[in-house]
Amino acid sequence: MKVKDGDFVMPGDVLGIIEQFLPGEGTYDNEGYIKSSILGNVQINSKMKTISVMPKSGKPALLEVGDTIYGQITDVKAQRVNVNIDRLKNTTRPLALPYIGAIHISQVKEGYLDKLTDAFRIGDIIEATVVKITGDNVDLSTVDKECGVLKAMCTRCRGYMQTTEKENELQCKRCSKKEKREVSTNYVNE
Ligand SMILES: [Zn+2]
Asked: Could you tell me if 126 and 150 are in contact, meaning their C-beta atoms sit under 8 angstroms apart?
């Protein structure tokens, strides 16, 4: 993976190697690889040889029904998961409000989902569409194939997980544990 100035990156994405850059704000050094620690846009300072990730820029945006967002799962309950809505897809504009997102169990996929822990876990980074807005409360859906989990960490060792041949299954790179998720077609394998 070769990143350019302005590229949108996610936590854990490799930005470069330590011989190329000094790891700046929003990054960390992982055994010689510089990785992003946040969702944001790459900023390369070629003079200083630093690489950073900036969380947000531009004019604030209000969410609308039909928008696609990136967020992170903050809680998994019996009937719904809570989502920290981080940003709109395809723009670096920050959100005008600190929206509170949630996905009801009926809005995860087409057909029946037995339990929400088969779809999401705390810390998962997801893509979802806005289906309803009430003040700063936003109902989200991941029924669309492109929606769902983009990046997940193993619940046992916190290593990043990879897709397998099986639909909606991920496997930990580090400890080989398999877990179920509502996996997006845009899932990011490292
Ligand atoms: Zn693991």
From this structure: yes
Q: Tell me the per-residue pLDDT of 15-56, one tens digit each, with 9 for 90 and over.
A: 999 999 999 999 999 999 999 988 888 999 988 899 999 886
Ligand-binding site membership of 147 (annotated): no
d(CA 84, CA 166): 28
Task: State the pTM of this model.
Answer: 0.73
Strand (E) or helix (H) holding 60: none
The whole-angstrom separation of Cα 190 and Cα 185 is 15
Whether residue 1 has pLDDT greater than 60: no
Say which CATH number the domain at 20 has. Answer: 2.40.50.100
CATH code, domain carrying 171:
2.40.50.140
SS (H, E, C) 84-113: EEEEECCCCCCECCCCEEEEEHHHCCCCCC
Check whether residue 29 and residue 86 sit in a common domain: no
* 154 annotated to a ligand binding site: yes
CA of 172 to the centre of ligand 1 (A): 5
Q: Is 157 annotated as ligand-binding?
A: yes
Domain boundaries, position 120: 58-190
